[in-house]
Amino acid sequence: MPPETRRRGRPSGRTGTDLLDTARAVFLEHGYAGTTMDAIAARAQISKASLYREHPSKDALFAAIVRAWADAGRDAMRPHLQRLESAEDTREGLIALAEIMRAGILGREVLRMRRLVTSEAERLPEVAAAYLEDSWERNIRALAETLRALADRGRLRAPDPHLAAEQLTWLVIGAPLNRRLLAGTDDPDGHAAPVATAVDLFLAGYGPENGPLHA
Amino acid sequence: MPPETRRRGRPSGRTGTDLLDTARAVFLEHGYAGTTMDAIAARAQISKASLYREHPSKDALFAAIVRAWADAGRDAMRPHLQRLESAEDTREGLIALAEIMRAGILGREVLRMRRLVTSEAERLPEVAAAYLEDSWERNIRALAETLRALADRGRLRAPDPHLAAEQLTWLVIGAPLNRRLLAGTDDPDGHAAPVATAVDLFLAGYGPENGPLHA
DNA sequence: CCTACCGATCGGTAGG
DNA sequence: CCTACCGATCGGTAGG
């Protein structure tokens, strides 16, 4: 029997990052309280004792999952921001970006992760704070830098790029995110406003030759 | 012994609406999973058996609490919308309304209730849907009607008042709501943008003589 | 209306 | 001898 098959001295189940992915799936399916360490261990094909040796408690495991998730999502928007920055037509570039932001934030996994972190935010404030920073504030700042760059080239007028970035973001995702968080998962979001309506209001205030925001 | 003291034939603990208020407080303190029916019964000074006679399950009790809460919050914005509609200065009227919306939605109890409903939304979709309708969609529609009335009197230009109402709402509360939901409760929201920035972007698009939204 | 109690299952840890 | 892992079960508590 070849040593690869025997795997002597190597764990046969998932550990490390694989374990976190598996555990995340279980948490997303059943929620925090509904998830048992037994279920996670079973899914990962390790004993509970092994699970506890890697993560000393359920809370610690959850924190590790959120950290890994937020880490993986860091700078996820970078390439799309690059495309916006070099877009011929600023309005169309903004619409394309807005479409990607909306699809990303309203994705099932992202939505469920958000619900999970939010529901435990009071009990585990440092976990929620890290999530907020890595998967939100950081991306807002990146968008703000792109808006500043566009302003520098006369494509926009944005005296406060960070504020503008927040406003654009919430114009795009506020209503559908709220609906998805509170309505069941089944809503195909048929009656969501096109992202262009958000971009047009944004440009009414921040377009290069528009608006009393710069009076 | 006077009959008021004996209270013969009357339950000595809280029932009905009082019971729902008491139970809501316990849920808000400990979250759904962290709340036990024993704790609620004790706080309400009734036996667990009595509690189960009024509400056949923990889920049913929770549903009744959310329904009562959403019901109490219905039309909470009406008087403030009246004031906006008769405001001398539209911008200042919008700012005053925005201030009230923000304060209301970011209140501790409202925020905690929102977290609670959201976290159980997948398990109890009809509860979350009722909450969304009564304490959200309904208020958006009321705001939309006010905006339409202002447009009719030439104070605004709003071809789609419902869309405009949603956009104003999320410009005002999106960023601080997100931060409060994910950050601990301690944040005094020092670095929140003034509501006037939201109103000004809104007016850049919907002001009576502004913007390419009406080109 | 209450005390007492149930079947089951939880997060976490023992010895080997 | 070590690291990696297991079956079995602990004390407490959940909703009903």
Describe the protein's architecture and organization.
The structure is a homodimer of 215-residue chains. Chain A has 215 residues and is mainly alpha-helical. The first copy, chain A, has two domains: 10-71, Arc Repressor Mutant, subunit A (Orthogonal Bundle), CATH 1.10.10.60; 76-214, Tetracycline Repressor, domain 2 (Orthogonal Bundle). Chain A is 71% helix and 0% strand. In chain A, helix 2 (16-34) packs across helix 8, helix 6 (78-85) runs parallel beside helix 9 (125-152) and helix 10 runs antiparallel to helix 11 (195-206). The termini of chain A are far apart. The relative contact order of chain A is 0.10. The interface between A and B is large, with 51 and 51 residues. Chain A binds a DNA duplex (16 and 16 nucleotides) through helix 4. Chains A, B: Residues 13-73 form the HTH tetR-type domain.
Compact description:
The first copy, chain A, has 215 residues and is mainly alpha-helical. Helices cover 71% and strands 0% of the residues of chain A. Chain A starts with a helix and ends in a 9-residue tail after the last helix.
